[in-house]
């Protein structure tokens, strides 16, 4: 039986993206649409979205709709499109007062209002379309108030009477906390008692916590991370609420959209390859070396990195280990990313200290990120925490050996290579310190010097299947259980 699923996401690839949430929101919607479900994906129409990139049309009856959020008045309109190569419907909430800003996320004082308004607008659109979702699937802090809104603000409305909610936590490190003085923006009136009282007394309101408390089910994006976030080490202050909802919490590893991320059909690559044509991967490596002005020969192992440069990603483990390894061993490095200045400086300095061997491209570059996946020999992800992580799974498909810390989705998707048995897909280390990363880098380089072992590990990784056909079905099972 087909389900009516309303998905809310602050990012949707290829329209808007800062990280994996965008990829997952799009790929899960595609999967659901292909499986015959009535999926409608809501996302803000940011100013940064190229409106000519996808055919969009205004939705009749949903233009210049007034929206009151607390004492604030907004007006929004709705445009619609479908995801490329899919029938999945996207509804874009166009509210220039909130989304007509240079970046997707801001540090503006009304940041919480931008996403409260978005969430409220999405529910208002369902009501105006007389569309009754069986599942309301919200993602991360931005839309985490949706379950409470349905229970408190839409209580008794037949349209939402059978709606059940799912919160997916992609990144518990971002909770969207705002000051309790903005309590009126929630418009809960007599239902204000539903808010988390200890937080209120401490002068704050935590959107993600309310998602955890009020969603009918909660997922995070890997089984290991579902266990981790219930601990003091990884719960980021929400562990008590998560433990309380333990029965409702599960982990579903993200899938990979192999229409976008596969060296057999990658639209950015001039030549395509598979496990039987790895010579082409070597040619792509030569091309990238030349393009970036590296002076290392093609035989020198090349490590890649594509990342938001945030403390989550474990960049500080590289501060000591990478210069050491570069000093003593034959290795090149291509890093792409942007974020916190201390990490950008580190990478920029590294490139200066090792000219011709290290290249740092600061910024966001989709095409280069695909080239790095294809052309490098190994890929670095020493994350402090990693709810799932997509790049290690992309790397496996591209025959680019992931070097990861054993946490969250990295632990669930990369198996440490054992030369004795020839099993395993990458290099995994446990401790969050630079010695452990240095060990991992040296282990990778030693294995690279043994072509038979290396090729075995590459082939093992390329044979892995993390497609949405497998992972998407797990969401459908939860939806069905919720919908009854
Ligand atoms: P996170 O969501 O925590 O950033 P993921 O590994 O789940 O981590 O997803 C990151 C996604 O964002 C990947 O698709 C990756 O290729 C992409 N990405 C991150 N930084 C950049 C960048 N600077 N340029 C291009 N793509 C990037
Ligand atoms: C996040 C996490 C990442 C995950 C992505 C998509 O931002 O940091 O690990 O893969 O969301 O779920």
Provide a concise account of the structure shown.
Helices cover 36% and strands 19% of the residues.
Secondary-structure class: alpha/beta
The end-to-end span amounts to 12 Å
Helix content: 25-40%
- Runs with pLDDT <50, length 5+? none
The fold-level CATH name of the largest domain is Rossmann fold
Hetero groups in this structure are: adenosine-5'-diphosphate, alpha-D-glucopyranose
Rounded mean pLDDT score? 97
Query: How many DSSP-defined strands?
Result: 18
How would you name the CATH homologous superfamily of the largest domain? Glycogen Phosphorylase B
- Tally of separate helices: 17
Per CATH, the class of the largest domain reads: Alpha Beta
* Largest sheet entry: 10 strands, mixed
Share of residues in strands: 15-25%
Oligomer: single chain
For the record, the count of structural domains works out to 2
Radius of gyration: 23 Å
CATH architecture of the largest domain: 3-Layer(aba) Sandwich
Shape: globular
Tell me about this structure.
With 484 residues, this protein is of the alpha/beta class. The chain has 2 domains: 4-255 and 469-483, Rossmann fold; 278-465, Rossmann fold (3-Layer(aba) Sandwich). Helix 10 packs parallel to helix 15 (434-448). It has helices at residues 20-34, 96-99, 111-128, 146-152, 197-201, 207-214, 223-228, 239-244, 278-292, 318-328, 341-353, 366-375, 391-397, 408-413, 434-448, 451-462, 468-483; strands at 4-8, 38-44, 57-58, 65-69, 72-82, 89-94, 135-139, 164-169, 178-179, 204-205, 217-220, 249-251, 302-309, 332-339, 358-362, 378-381, 401-405, 427-429. The model has no long low-confidence stretch (mean pLDDT 97). Strands 1, 2, 3, 4, 5, 6, 7, 8, 11 and 12 form a 10-stranded mixed β-sheet that branches. Strands 15-14-13-16-17-18 form a 6-stranded parallel β-sheet, sandwiched between helices. A two-stranded antiparallel ribbon has the order 9-10. The chain has 17 helices and 18 strands. Bound molecules: adenosine-5'-diphosphate and alpha-D-glucopyranose (GLC). Alpha-D-glucopyranose binds next to helix 1.
């Amino acid at each position: 039986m087909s389900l009516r699923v309303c998905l809310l996401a602050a990012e949707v690839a290829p329209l808007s993206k800062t990280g994996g949430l965008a990829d997952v929101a799009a790929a899960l919607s595609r999967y659901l649409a292909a499986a015959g479900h009535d999926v409608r994906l809501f996302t803000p129409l940011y100013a940064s979205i190229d409106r000519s990139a996808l055919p969009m049309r205004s939705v009749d009856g949903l233009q210049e709709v007034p929206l009151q959020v607390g004492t604030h008045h907004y007006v929004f309109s709705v445009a619609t499109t479908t995801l490329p190569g899919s029938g999945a419907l996207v509804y874009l909430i166009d509210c220039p007062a909130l989304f007509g800003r240079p970046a997707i996320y801001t540090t503006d004082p009304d940041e919480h209002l931008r996403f409260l308004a978005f969430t409220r607008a999405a529910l208002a659109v369902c009501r105006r379309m007389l569309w009754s979702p069986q599942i309301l699937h919200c993602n991360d802090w931005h839309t985490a108030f949706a379950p409470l809104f349905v229970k408190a603000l839409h209580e008794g409305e037949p349209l939402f009477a059978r709606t059940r909610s799912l919160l997916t936590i992609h990144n518990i490190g971002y909770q969207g906390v705002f000051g309790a003085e903005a309590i009126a923006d929630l418009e809960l009136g007599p239902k204000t008692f539903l808010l988390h009282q200890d937080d209120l007394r401490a002068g704050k309101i935590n959107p993600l916590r309310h998602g955890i408390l009020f969603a009918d089910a909660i997922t995070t994006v890997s089984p290991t991370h579902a266990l981790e976030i219930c601990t003091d080490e990884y719960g980021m202050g929400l562990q008590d609420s998560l433990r309380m909802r333990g029965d409702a919490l599960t982990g579903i590893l993200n899938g990979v959209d192999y229409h976008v991320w596969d060296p057999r059909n990658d639209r950015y690559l001039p030549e395509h390859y598979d496990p039987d044509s790895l010579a082409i991967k070597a040619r792509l490596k030569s091309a990238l070396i030349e393009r970036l002005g590296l002076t290392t020969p093609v035989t020198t192992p090349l490590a890649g990195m594509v990342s938001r440069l945030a403390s989550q990603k474990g960049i500080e483990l590289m501060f000591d280990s990478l210069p050491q390894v570069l000093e003593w061993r034959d290795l090149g490095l291509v890093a792409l990313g942007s974020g916190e200045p201390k990490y950008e400086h580190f990478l920029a300095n590294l490139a200066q200290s090792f000219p011709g061997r290290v290249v740092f491209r600061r910024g966001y570059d989709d095409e280069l990120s695909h080239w790095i996946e294809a052309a490098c020999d190994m890929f670095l992800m020493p994350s402090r925490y990693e709810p799932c992580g997509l790049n290690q799974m992309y790397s496996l498909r591209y025959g680019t050996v992931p070097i990861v810390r054993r946490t969250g989705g990295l632990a669930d998707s990369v198996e440490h290579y054992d030369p004795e048995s020839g099993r395993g897909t990458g290099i995994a280390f446990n401790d969050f310190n630079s010695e452990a990363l240095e060990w991992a880098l040296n282990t990778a380089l030693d294995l690279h010097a043994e072509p038979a072992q290396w090729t075995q590990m590459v082939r093992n990784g390329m044979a892995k299947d993390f497609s949405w056909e497998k992972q998407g079905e797990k969401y459908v099972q939860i939806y069905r259980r919720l919908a009854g």
